[in-house]
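Duplicate of #3305? Posting structure anyway:
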């Protein structure tokens, strides 16, 4: 990002030999600047909308969940009463293990990937964000993730964390309370 913003000064100092390359680069820089300003404006508008929504504001108290994810989850969860438990919500977006059963023996496979793909993608991205900032995280959730990382591949841990975040989001919506890192809301 920094190098893109300094492109005009670099072009001036290099005095690019062909005008065609310079013209193309300046045009691309102008387009990037426009898109950057547009993203900033839309982000500010979304943050304003989230600030006016009680549920979205409460969902943002969950670690690694930002305004985009909280607004999407708030729109789909509502008050949470349409789901019996957090697992039902996680299952509705495809974040629970797929099962193959025969003769009374159940085998758990990867996540089912059924349901709303957008919410699943957002929660998986939140899981990646949480793991990337794990050294700054504290609390039971961070301890749980650290324990999983010692035993499983990071991608498996990300999916497990996305499942846990979905269950926590349901518990926050259902209980009408903010997320508390040390509470039993994690076990929802």
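Output from current build:
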């Amino acid at each position: 990002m920094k190098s893109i913003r300094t492109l005009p000064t670099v072009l001036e100092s290099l005095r690019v030999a062909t005008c065609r390359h310079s013209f193309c680069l300046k045009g691309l820089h102008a387009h990037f600047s426009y898109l950057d300003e547009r993203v900033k404006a839309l982000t500010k508008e979304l943050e304003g909308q989230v600030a006016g929504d009680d549920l979205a504001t409460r969902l943002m108290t969950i670690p690694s969940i930002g305004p985009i994810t909280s607004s999407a989850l708030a729109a789909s969860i509502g008050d949470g009463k349409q789901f019996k438990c957090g697992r039902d919500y996680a299952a509705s977006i495809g974040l629970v293990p797929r099962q193959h059963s025969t003769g009374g023996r159940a085998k758990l496979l990867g996540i089912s990937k059924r349901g709303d793909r957008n919410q699943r993608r957002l929660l998986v991205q939140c899981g990646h964000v949480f793991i990337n900032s794990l050294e700054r995280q504290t609390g039971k959730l961070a301890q749980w993730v650290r324990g999983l990382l010692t035993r499983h591949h990071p991608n498996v841990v990300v999916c497990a964390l996305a499942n846990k975040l979905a269950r926590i989001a349901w518990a926050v919506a259902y209980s009408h309370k903010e997320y508390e890192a040390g509470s039993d809301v994690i076990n929802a």
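Confirmed duplicate; merging threads. DSSP finds nine helices and two strands in the chain. Residues 7 and 29 are 7 Å apart (CA to CA).
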